[in-house]
């Protein structure tokens, strides 16, 4: 009985998140009507309030879902890299380039900052920073990177990539902004590499 109830709750939450994600991704948070997307899946506004508190709470759930999917994709990109440094470069550049994808662009990099505020302190962002700090610490230990604090480097890389993604998402020409952002970000990362001592 308990399992059936849990399944029903999960199903209702899943339906609301899917309907909201479609609406937020197509017309944006401000224009998405709660009545429209709840009735589209045969639920009431009351169900939305019960499970998410309000429309803002539902947006957070959608953001969390997209963020988790992005994380899986980024880890797969990093896993294909030939070495640890290239994994860092590939993963973070891929994150910036995801700001070109319409759903991610609108929901994560336009609506979420405007509605939910700074997401840099959320658990998923902290987890990314911790993983990057560990990678940078290992690269520094191996003599690949300059002598700089790994956590400081990780936080600055995270901040720069987030700012670049928001710049792309809000630009009148996202493709052009992305090219500039990726080129600049790549140069910034290269600045962390240790240069061979001159003979």
TrEMBL record:
Task: Describe the location of the HTH tetR-type domain by residue ranges.
Answer: 10-70
Residue ranges: DNA binding? 33-52
Q: Which SUPFAM superfamilies match?
A: Homeodomain-like, Tetracyclin repressor-like, C-terminal domain
Q: Which UniProt keywords apply?
A: DNA-binding
User: By its UniProt entry, which InterPro entries does this protein fall under?
Assistant: Homeodomain-like_sf (IPR009057), HTH-type_TetR-like_transc_reg (IPR050109), HTH_TetR (IPR001647), Rv0078-like_C (IPR049484), Tet_transcr_reg_TetR-rel_C_sf (IPR036271)
Pfam families the UniProt entry points to: TetR_C_41, TetR_N
Keyword DNA-binding found:
yes
GO MF term (any one)? DNA-binding transcription factor activity
Q: What is this protein called?
A: TetR/AcrR family transcriptional regulator
